[in-house]
């Protein structure tokens, strides 16, 4: 179980996250939507301490900290329990697909190289890229690179995988294979917090959809409810604009 209470993050005095409360059950699939610049990435980054929050409490399993007092060890624990999938994949260009997946196990978890590579091969099988073990990112398609990015997150065996617009950088032809892998993880009940504009993914896969605006959670609920009968005018307005650009649900 993951819990965020009263999370605040300011940039230049402006609260980008203005007191976020959020609890995520084990196995829950949550999709976060909202206008650009509304704090969605910042929320994910604060959970991972890629950004240092200004106030709040964070609980991840048996780790429970005031984020302003988190020790170096607390931060490392939080990072080990939250894996991140970036919009731009963030792979090491000079490492193979196998090495990219194994790297965190070796550096963060201090696994011996052989054990880490064996795990990475298992992951490559699961993400359908066993034949690309020795390929460097530049020789992979965008879809394959992002699948390696997801494979790296899977290898970490974190409590939750945080996805920040994982398909937004992809050419349209690669989007489905990445969403397909995410759906596979969802079926396995991997806990996921996903920022995305892919409304049909949210509709099909999410247990809960959260609409954020202006650093607040404005509204949340099961996808049928949030998409079918949004209550807040800001949610209604946002959905009208987004759905106008996407295939009808
Ligand atoms: N490192 C930073 N320094 C200053 N401002 C930032 C930084 N990161 C994000 N912001 C600002 O915080 C706001 C929220 O950004 P972000 O979390 O990226 O929004 P979203 O992911 O919803 O588009 C934006 O106004 C953005 O310009
Ligand atoms: Mg963002």
How would you portray this structure in words?
The protein is α/β, with parallel strands linked by helices and 249 residues long. It has one domain (2-247): P-loop containing nucleotide triphosphate hydrolases (Rossmann fold, 3-Layer(aba) Sandwich), CATH 3.40.50.300. Helix content is 39%, strand content 24%. The chain is built from 9 helices and 10 strands. The chain has helices at residues 40-47, 72-81, 97-107, 113-126, 142-155, 172-187, 199-205, 223-228, 233-244, and strands at residues 2-11, 14-24, 29-33, 55-60, 63-66, 82-85, 160-164, 192-195, 208-213, 216-221. The protein has a 6-stranded mixed β-sheet with strand order 6-7-8-3-9-10, sandwiched between helices. Helix 3 (97-107) crosses helix 4 (113-126). 41% of the residues are buried.
Write out key terms for the chains shown.
4-stranded antiparallel β-sheet; alpha/beta; 6-stranded mixed β-sheet; binds magnesium ion; 10 strands; 39% helix; binds adenosine-5'-diphosphate; globular; Rossmann fold; 249 residues
Provide a compact summary of the structure.
This protein has 249 residues and is an alpha/beta fold.
Which of globular, elongated, flat, extended, rod-shaped describes the shape?
globular
Name the hetero compounds present. adenosine-5'-diphosphate, magnesium ion
CATH architecture: 3-Layer(aba) Sandwich
Task: Give me the count of strands.
Answer: 10
Rg on CA atoms, Å: 18 Å
Topology (SSEs and partners):
Layout lengths: L1 E10 L2 E11 L4 E5 L6 H8 L7 E6 L2 E4 L5 H10 E4 L11 H11 L5 H14 L15 H14 L4 E5 L7 H16 L4 E4 L3 H7 L2 E6 L2 E6 L1 H6 L4 H12 L5
Parallel strand pairs: 3-8, 3-9, 6-7, 7-8
Antiparallel strand pairs: 1-2, 1-4, 4-5, 9-10
The structure holds adenosine-5'-diphosphate and magnesium ion.
